[in-house]
Write a structure and sequence with these properties.
This protein has 9 helices and 3 strands; from the N terminus they run βααββααααααα. By secondary structure, the chain is mainly α.
């Protein structure tokens, strides 16, 4: 490997190479080995140098029967893995729709919401995002939102449910399912909050 056999702008970076159909890091190691050149990392001088590959060598490799066979097998494995991940994601979403969710009755709900509102305001002010008094009780939209948020985090097992599913395939969709189920629980228990629960759906 030379430092730079041809102008670097004519060479492919590893990122560009991996964007070509069929290439993976394992394929690069197997079929190309060492890069044809390197150059300093453009963002971090202390980082590993950028690896560069000669397009002619890449194209010649892609034309070989060996690479064609390996690429077909690799793509088949990727498709199988993607299918398995999709099945696991669907299982996660289905479980999110059936896992036990509970809402504990709360007394002094307005006082708890007021305290939550004060905490919310203090955090906003500390970050320089808000510099006003809390809205008065005539602003029902604000206080309903604060109350629902407090109930979701303090009076349900919402956080534990999310923690149980953290990192699993389909988590984003599962989160939406759990959140909607919790909002439905709150709306059923506290009809006065139903409109805001609907807006948050």
């Amino acid at each position: 490997m030379s430092d730079e056999p041809t102008p670097s702008k004519q060479l492919l970076t590893l990122t560009e190479l991996l964007e070509r159909p069929g290439w993976t890091r394992a394929g690069v190691t197997r079929f190309l080995g060492d890069p044809d050149a390197t150059k300093p990392n453009p963002r971090y001088r202390s980082a590993a140098p950028t690896r560069l590959y000669d397009p002619a060598r890449v194209e010649a490799t892609e034309a070989t029967p060996e690479f064609g066979s390996w690429r077909a097998a690799s793509e088949a494995r990727s498709a199988k893995a993607a299918q398995a991940a999709a099945v696991r994601a669907e299982e996660t979403v289905q479980y999110a729709g059936t896992m036990p969710l509970t809402l504990h009755a709360q007394f002094g709900l307005s006082q708890a919401a007021a305290a939550a509102g004060q905490d919310w305001l203090a955090q906003k002010v500390a970050r320089g995002e808000y510099a006003a008094e809390l809205p008065d009780r005539s602003n029902s939209d604000f206080w309903d939102r604060i109350t629902i948020n407090w109930l979701r985090h303090q009076s349900t097992n919402y956080e534990r449910a999310l923690a149980e599913l953290a990192g699993k395939p389909g988590m984003d969709d599962a989160y939406s399912v759990i959140r909607q189920r919790v909002l439905d629980l709150i709306a059923d228990r506290y009809p006065s909050l139903a409109d805001e629960c609907c807006r948050q759906s």
